[in-house]
Amino acid sequence: MDIAFIVAVFPKLLAGLPLTLLLAVLALAGGGAIALALSGLRASSWVGARIADFYVYVFRGTPLLIQIFLIYYGLAQFPAVRHSVLWPLLREPYVCAVLALMLNDAAYTSEILRGGLRAVSTGAIEAAKVAGMTRLTMLRRIVLPLAFRQALPAYGAEITSMVKATSLASVVTLMEVTGIARAEVSQSYRAIEVFLCAAMIYLVLVTVIARAIQLLEARLSPYRRPALARSPA
Amino acid sequence: MTPTTVRLSNIHKSFGGQEVLRGIDMEARDGDVISIIGASGSGKSTLLRCIPFLEIPDQGEVTVGDTHLRLSGAGHRFSRAEREKVRRLRGQLGFVFQSFNLWPHMTALQNVMEIPLHVQNRPRAECRDEAEAMLAKVGLAEKRDAWPAHLSGGQQQRVAIARALASRPRALLFDEPTSALDPELVGEVLRVIRALAEEGRTMLIVTHEMAFAREVSSHAIYLHEGRIEEKGPPEQVFLDPVSERCRRFVGARPDARGGA
User: Fold this and answer.
1) I want to staple B82 with a disulfide (CB 3.0 to 4.6 A). Which of A83, A139, B78, B192 is the partner?
2) Chains A and B: how many Cβ contacts under 8 Å?
């Protein structure tokens, strides 16, 4: 192990961090929006629910790497895609990677959301209903806040797994942390040093995110802790 | 003549072919305290839940204050205007559940403020003052910032009563308010309900607490298999009922406080 080499390569890898974070943020934002749409679809009708089930089944049941390959290499096979107005976007590896991560995240997030919604007690809903709340107010004030608190730990795990999943974008030429690491290895042949550095970056990132989620959870759900931890006013 | 606050006419309700309510007529006038008693399965909770449409009657009419709804057949599809009416009807009632049903992510004070603030859209300062007054009324002023999970069952139920009061309802409905409580916590909740009765509030109470019901109510109703079997002043229903079944029901529980 060459310490001087590690010190030199570390900043190079860090240069890929913004792209890694951007991929994760876009995937989570887009995936979250699609997940909400899937929840709406699931609630709309029997057919809607089966479509949502099928979506989740397919995207959770196949490897993310293959989903990326299908979108990046596969779509180009169809002349209709090559001639569509979207082609300038769809031939960009960056767009394809975000799209794959997004669609994949949506499948997992919609299941997490479903679990959170199911955990909202009928009693809490009846109490809102009987007081004359409209459906929208009930969603906004009672159902979603309770579902969100319930789903937060699982969603935290999904955030960290998405951050790690962005490393797969390196196989379609993106120069995020892992992409840069692979390029460095092919030049220096020092796989251990470079990949350990890359691993450290992900580890720190995941640790920070996990801690932030924990703090948010404690802040939103202080009632889950015993009363003694918090002296009454 | 005092105005009618709640009126039910010919209410029918079935669950999966089993007819639970078979034509109930009843009326609560302003200031009435009506206790509804009966064996388990007699339909008394279903009856109470039909008033704010927590259960939707298959047939019959429900009137609360100036709001009136008529249903004519199971599986009734509510029009937009009817849904609005249901909401208005609910807004005139305060409902207290057997299992409290406080919102766990809100403190006691936030629970009590929620409806005045977010449904009735009253000014925040007014809502807070009134919520604090309601908590004081049920003896929990010092618990305003406590979470429901950190309160005893009796305290949670008293917060739930404060919450029901905060929306300034015309009538309060209690669905077995002490049945989920440990025996030593029943008294504190009954004391609060009794104080409300003495204020002249209109209340309908489904309960197993016979001695309490006899004391606080102005009228009592005994339900049997979905029909009103006996009704009248509490002295009649609890001490000298006409119906033989009712006589056995109340007679079988000379010291009803120890009962189920």
Assistant:
1) B78
2) 74
